[in-house]
Every structure is written in C-alpha cells, then in structure tokens.
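1st attempt posting a full record on here, be nice pls
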Amino acid sequence: MTLYWEDFKVGETVEMGKYVFTEAEIIDFARQFDPQPFHIDPVAARSSFFGGLIASGWHTCAVCMRLNCDSYINRAVSLGSPGLDNIRWPKPVRPGDVITYRRTVLESRSSRSRPGVGLLRSRTEALNQAGELVMSMEGWGMFGRRPAP
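the predicted structure (as tokens):
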C-alpha cells in the first residue's frame, strides 16, 4: 500500500525496528566516517571519557535512516526533507546494544506553495535494551498528497 501525506496522523507513534550494534560494525563505520579513538580503538576507548568503545552518533543516525526507509519511506510518496533539528545523543551506544527506533508525528500541514505536497514534523527516538534514550531528533518530511478520486 502506498502511503500519502494524509495517511500520517498527528500523535501517531510507530516502532520502526530494532538494530544490534556490533563491535565490528561500530569500528568499521567510525573508520570511514568518524575516526575518533573511542569509536575505533577498544584499548584507547577504555581510558577515554566513555570508559569503552562506543558507536558514533552518526552511526545511530545512519541506522535510523535505513529503518525509516525500510519501515515507511520506500512505500510512501516521499519527496525528501528540508532538514533535521535538535539531534541529541544523551547516552552512548555500546557493542551488543539492541536499539529500538520509533517515530512520532508532531505536526502536519499542507504546503502553502505546492498544492500537491504535505509536510510532516516528526520526532524520532532510539532507546537501548534498558529503555534509555540514546538518540533523538526532529525534522520535517515532505510527502505527496493523495490524488483526487
């Protein structure tokens, strides 16, 4: 079923999926995109502020984008996004953590300049297996409106 702007309801919260962060993936991602010692070197990470290896915050965001695509974007009339706001990483993600991602629609409005476009503001949160918030962000998405019958 194709999803249109009208299919998303303010207040609706949807779990998008879970992801297990492995030590190998944490290191591989960070070597390419965020090569700080506490992301790429388990020995150096032990004497860091974090006391051990942690995933890059950008890694948690990249997994979130994948789950967004798998759970709804690739079956929606998605027109992209003008950006994200308020990205936060209040707790580190460590090897073996099982992170659950969820999305809540905060606001919905039709575009003033493009009649076939609707805008959604959503908050995405990621929680570890203990229920602790490890990532949150807000942003707008643009979606096609349902064609008239």
